[in-house]
C-alpha cells in the first residue's frame, strides 16, 4: 500500500509573510522532500537562488535541494493529478506537499477538494491549515476583508507575523482571534522562523480540541460578552453524559441543514452509548465525516467535546440542542 502524502495548506492575507515562511522551511528542513503548489502564478515567490531551470508544461520546477515548485493557472485538481503522475513515473520525488493560497483566498474549497475526491482523499493526508496573520494590519483586515476572517476560521495553526512592530495591539488582536477560533494554537513568527516540529505535530483530524501551550498562552481568554468587530465566532460544547447515536445523528443533520450558510468548520469527540471507542467527527461547511477513534481508557472519565466555527452562530441555541437529546 502506497503511504499517503502529508498536505499543509498555507494561507494569509497579502503581505502577511507566506513567502518568507516557505523559504525558511525549504532552507532549514532536512527530513522531507517538499512539493509546493503556488497559486500566485507569474510571481517569483520562492527565492530564485534556490531554483534550477525547467521547461515542463505545467511549470514543475526542481529546486536544488530536491524539493519541487509547481506554478500553474490550472485548477488545483489538474496540478495535483500531474504531480501524482510524475511521482508515479519517478520523474519527481516528494514526501510532503504545501499549497500556498493567494492572499485573497478562502482555503475551504481546497480542503473540500481533498475530502471529496476519490483519488486525492486516498493519496494525500491533510495535516492542517496554517494561517499567517499580519499583527500590524490584522484588525483593519478583519473589518474590511471577510476572507481574512475565513482564513482564521479554517486555521489549525495560527502564526502572528510582525509582532515586534505592534506590541500595543497584540493583546486585543490575540483576544479577537481566540473569539473567532478557540482551538487553534497561536505562535509568534519572527522573520519567517518557525519551530518545524509544529508541522510534524499538526493534525487536521486531531481529537484534541484544547489548544497546545503557545507563545501567547499568557494572554487572558476573551470575555464572550465583549462585542468584537467580526462576523466569525466560535464556541466549544462539553458534555459528560453519553449520546444516543441515532439522536446525535439526527441533531447533526438538523444543524447542517438549518445553519448550512453559516457553518465554516467543526470538529469534535463524542462519547457514544454502549461503544468502547470515541467517535471522531469533523467537517468543513457541508462536507463532513466521522470515524471511530481510540478506545476509552477504563480509568478516564468519558466525555464529549465539539467546537463550532461559523458566521454569527447562536451559541445558546447549540448548547440547548445538545443538552436536550
Summarize the structure.
The protein has helices spanning 18-28, 76-88, 108-116, 120-123, 138-144, 146-153, 170-180, 197-201, 245-258, 315-324, and strands spanning 5-12, 34-38, 60-62, 68-71, 96-100, 124-134, 157-161, 186-189, 232-239, 263-270, 277-284, 287-295, 304-311. With 325 residues, the protein is α/β, with parallel strands linked by helices. A hairpin with a 5-residue loop joins strand 3 (60-62) and strand 4.
Q: Can you walk me through this structure?
A:
- The chain is globular, with a radius of gyration of 20 Å.
- The chain has an 8-stranded mixed sheet, sandwiched between helices. It has a 5-stranded antiparallel sheet with strand order 9-13-10-11-12, with helices on both faces.
- α5 (138-144) crosses α6.
- The chain is 28% helix and 26% strand.
- The protein is an alpha/beta fold.
- The termini are far apart.
- The protein folds into 2 domains: 5-201, P-loop containing nucleotide triphosphate hydrolases (Rossmann fold), CATH 3.40.50.300; 232-324, 2-Layer Sandwich (Hypothetical Protein Yjia, Chain: A,domain 2).
Amino acid at each position: 500500500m502506497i503511504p499517503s502524502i502529508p498536505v499543509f495548506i498555507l494561507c494569509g492575507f497579502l503581505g502577511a509573510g507566506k513567502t518568507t515562511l516557505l523559504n525558511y522551511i525549504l532552507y532549514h528542513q532536512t527530513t522531507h522532500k517538499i512539493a509546493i503548489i503556488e497559486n500566485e502564478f507569474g510571481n517569483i515567490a520562492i527565492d530564485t537562488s534556490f531554483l534550477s531551470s525547467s521547461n515542463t508544461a505545467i511549470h514543475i520546477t526542481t529546486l536544488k535541494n530536491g524539493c519541487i515548485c509547481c506554478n500553474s493557472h490550472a485548477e488545483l485538481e489538474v496540478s495535483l493529478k500531474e504531480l501524482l503522475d510524475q511521482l508515479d513515473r519517478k520523474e519527481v520525488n516528494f514526501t510532503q506537499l504545501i499549497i500556498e493560497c493567494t492572499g485573497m483566498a478562502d482555503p475551504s474549497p481546497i480542503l473540500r477538494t481533498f475530502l471529496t475526491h476519490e483519488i486525492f482523499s486516498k493519496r494525500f493526508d491533510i495535516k492542517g491549515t496554517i494561517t499567517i496573520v499580519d499583527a500590524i494590519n490584522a484588525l483593519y483586515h478583519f473589518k474590511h476583508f471577510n476572507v481574512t476572517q475565513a482564513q482564521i476560521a479554517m486555521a489549525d495553526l495560527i502564526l502572528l507575523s510582525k509582532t515586534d512592530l505592534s506590541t500595543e495591539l497584540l493583546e486585543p488582536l490575540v483576544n479577537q482571534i481566540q473569539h473567532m477560533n478557540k482551538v487553534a494554537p497561536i505562535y509568534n513568527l519572527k522573520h519567517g522562523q518557525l519551530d518545524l516540529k509544529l508541522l510534524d505535530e499538526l493534525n487536521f483530524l486531531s481529537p484534541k480540541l484544547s489548544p497546545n501551550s503557545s507563545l501567547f498562552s499568557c494572554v487572558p481568554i476573551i470575555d464572550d460578552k465583549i462585542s468584537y468587530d467580526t462576523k466569525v465566532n466560535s464556541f466549544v460544547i462539553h458534555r459528560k453524559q453519553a449520546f444516543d447515536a441515532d439522536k446525535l445523528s439526527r441533531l447533526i443533520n438538523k444543524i447542517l441543514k438549518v445553519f448550512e450558510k453559516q457553518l465554516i468548520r467543526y470538529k469534535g469527540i463524542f462519547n457514544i452509548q454502549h461503544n468502547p471507542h470515541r467517535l471522531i467527527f469533523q467537517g468543513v461547511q457541508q462536507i463532513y465525516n466521522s470515524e471511530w477513534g481510540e478506545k476509552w481508557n477504563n480509568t478516564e472519565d468519558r466525555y464529549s467535546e465539539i467546537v463550532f466555527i461559523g458566521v454569527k452562530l447562536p451559541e445558546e441555541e447549540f448548547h440547548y440542542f445538545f443538552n436536550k437529546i
